[in-house]
Amino acid sequence: FLKGVMKVVLELGALDREFMSQHTVGFDALERSLRETSWDELVASSGVARDELELAGRTYAEAKSTIVCW
Fold first, then answer.
1. DSSP per residue over 17-39, as a string?
2. What is the pLDDT of residues 33-65, one digit of tens each?
């Protein structure tokens, strides 16, 4: 599920690249992996329909503030 949400955020260009470069390690590899992963694979592995993943991703990307816990 989270990979699908992240893929949407990437496709929307809705991330702070400066923050990512300063505060993460390996984000470039994650981004490459997400771009290479098909929507069919994400839907199959999450059990969530693509339109629902896209809605979750857009909601996350458009939120004023967010937190992700797992």
1. HHHHHHH-SSHHHHHHHHHHS-H
2. 999 999 999 999 999 999 999 999 999 999 999
pLDDT value of residue 68: 82
Q: Which residue has the tokens 């629902």?
A: 52
- The residue assigned the tokens 């069919």 is 40
Cα–Cα distance measured from residue 59 to residue 25, given in angstroms and rounded to the nearest whole number: 25
Alpha carbons 27 and 46: distance in angstroms, whole number: 21
39-49 b/e with 16+ CB inside 10 Å = b? eeebbeebebe
